[in-house]
Automatic annotation (TrEMBL):
Source organism of this protein record: Pseudoalteromonas spongiae
Residue ranges of domain HTH lysR-type in the record: 3-60
Lineage of source species: Bacteria, Pseudomonadati, Pseudomonadota, Gammaproteobacteria, Alteromonadales
Family affiliation: Belongs to the LysR transcriptional regulatory family.
Alphabetical list of InterPro entries matching this protein: LysR-type_TF_proteobact-type (IPR058163), LysR_HTH_N (IPR000847), WH-like_DNA-bd_sf (IPR036388), WH_DNA-bd_sf (IPR036390)
Pfam families assigned: HTH_1
Record protein name field: LysR family transcriptional regulator
Length: 282
């Protein structure tokens, strides 16, 4: 049976207000139009929904049953529309603490300036969940990741803190802050390859953390050297807190990626993904 949505809306408003006049005011129609919609609905259902009196209308028993259903149904629709509208203005970003602190937060004002109507909510954790409504930024093995999902393949080098002395004084390089991932499935940082590539033969003392953020912060705090990715070091270099050595950087099997990037379901999520790709590839 085909029932007009407009007729159901007219009936629902009249049932809630107990008045065709008040229903008409709510729906920006005339009382005659409301009465006409309700009459057509009654004819379609072959039953009386209202008892019409001189100054008011009253629901019949069958009218009460229908009113309960329409009221519940329209409330459900309204809640769903509110939720979808909210999702359409929000980007939930899940990523690691290191990426959030070193890449996202220093540059987020740029995204906000371009898309002021989109709210960005960032949550962190080393185990990242993802869905089609959120942007999950993960660190992984590029050999195991769909190439279309990759944001950046990481390149590593040594950086010195501003107070660490001469940039190219490699002979005195004896201690480095770096990372040893908690996740055994991640490729290790390519420090051995870097040493071989740059002819570093002296033994290096290492202080290792399970997050790059900690290694970066410790190097800055103690005027030391840190072996880390260009992706995370970039913002510290821009602020003058770190300086990249003029050594040869080394490629790694590590990459940042967004799982199922092409399947992101909302426009804000897609806009954020596009902005992020441009940000870290610059």
């Amino acid at each position: 049976m085909q029932i007009s949505l407009q007729a159901l809306k007219a009936f629902d408003a009249a049932a809630r207000h107990g008045s065709f006049k008040l229903a008409a005011s709510e729906l920006a129609l005339t009382p005659t139009a409301i009465s006409h919609h309700v009459s057509k609905l009654e004819a379609r259902l072959n039953t009386q929904l209202f008892v019409r009196k001189t100054r008011k209308i009253e629901l019949t028993e069958l009218g009460k049953r229908l009113a309960q259903a329409t009221n519940s149904g329209f409330q459900t629709i309204a809640l769903a529309l509110d939720e979808i509208t909210h999702i359409g203005k929000l980007v939930n970003v899940n990523t690691t603490s290191s990426f959030a602190a070193s890449v996202l937060l220093p540059s987020l004002a740029e995204f906000n300036a371009k898309h002021g109507d989109i709210e960005v909510a960032i949550s962190t954790g080393e185990s990242v969940e993802h869905n089609q409504y959120a942007v999950a930024i993960r660190l992984g093995d590029k050999r195991m990741v769909n190439s279309q999902d990759i944001l950046q393949c990481d390149v590593f080098n040594v950086y010195r803190a501003k107070s660490a002395g001469e940039q190219n004084n490699l002979a005195s390089l004896s201690h480095i802050y770096t990372c040893k991932w908690k996740n055994p499935d991640l490729p290790p940082v390519p420090l051995t390859q870097w040493c071989n590539q740059n002819g570093i033969t002296q033994a290096l003392a290492l202080t290792q953390y399970d997050q790059e953020l900690f290694a970066l912060q410790q190097a800055i705090a103690h005027g030391g050297y840190v072996f880390c990715s260009q992706t995370l070091a970039k913002s510290y270099v821009a602020r003058g807190e770190l300086c990249e050595l003029t050594t040869l950087p080394v490629a790694s099997d590590l990459c940042y990626y967004i799982p199922n990037k092409s399947a992101l379901a909302t426009l804000p999520a897609r806009l954020f993904s596009e902005w992020l790709s441009n940000l870290i590839s610059a």
